[in-house]
Amino acid sequence: MAERPGALVIEDSADMRRLLCHVLRMAGFDVSEAATGAQGLDLVDRVRPDLVTLDLMLPDMDGIEVCRRLRGMTTAYVIMLTGLVEETDLLVGLEVGADDYMTKPFSPRELRARVAAMFRRPRTAEGRRTGGEPKVIEFGDLLIDEESREVRLADRPVALTRTEFDLLVALASNPRRVWGREALTRQVWHTDWPGDDHVIDVHIANLRRKLGDDARSGRWVRTVHGVGYRFGG
């Protein structure tokens, strides 16, 4: 029997925590839960989750700080949940490593759909091999190893989140193709869920920053105004 994926719910509201745990268990996860950021960070090392849902407003520390620390401990998918409507807070969450965000109240059905879309994304290059060999994409001094999910620029490692890596592979595997945001969503998330344009835009901005790119004349990721993005290597 295949091992069930693990999820960690970090949420201070008992009612919301019960709801999240129920939804994720029904979706096939083994679920652990924490009521504070400190408890959640302590559990990460022990349960090694594949998914983390993280409340932005926690009683002991800011959810943004928890997310930042999580990214130094795990490559799990992170969905940030918040009752706040301040766009800045949500975008900062994406900038420090969250893969997605949802605002409360949210539909359990939508949460399941977003989680399912994340886990349809390939973790390795199994779906992109030629002749049984792992695919390594090289453009100049940029090297992308799909099997190890490692990126090196000028022989220096570039630390990317899962979403940033998947976006880079999509763009670099189809150089010169112009990708609209909806097309990138379908390619990376493997879903027709339209999502929020800000999610793609912020992940692209983070990817550019880590590659030392310039938004106006990017070497690697270029903006095609009114359309979307293309790989410019």
UniProtKB/TrEMBL annotation:
Chain residues forming the annotated DNA-binding region: 134-233
What's an example GO BP annotation here?
regulation of DNA-templated transcription
User: Which residue positions does 4-aspartylphosphate occur at?
Assistant: D55
Q: Which UniProt keywords apply?
A: DNA-binding, Phosphoprotein, Transcription, Transcription regulation, Two-component regulatory system
Q: Which GO terms describe its cellular component?
A: cytosol; protein-DNA complex
**Annotated CDD domains:** trans_reg_C
Name-wise, this protein is DNA-binding response OmpR family regulator
Q: Which GO terms describe its molecular function?
A: phosphorelay response regulator activity; transcription cis-regulatory region binding
Keyword Ligase in annotation: no
Describe the location of the OmpR/PhoB-type domain by residue ranges.
Answer: 134-233
User: What domain of life?
Assistant: Bacteria
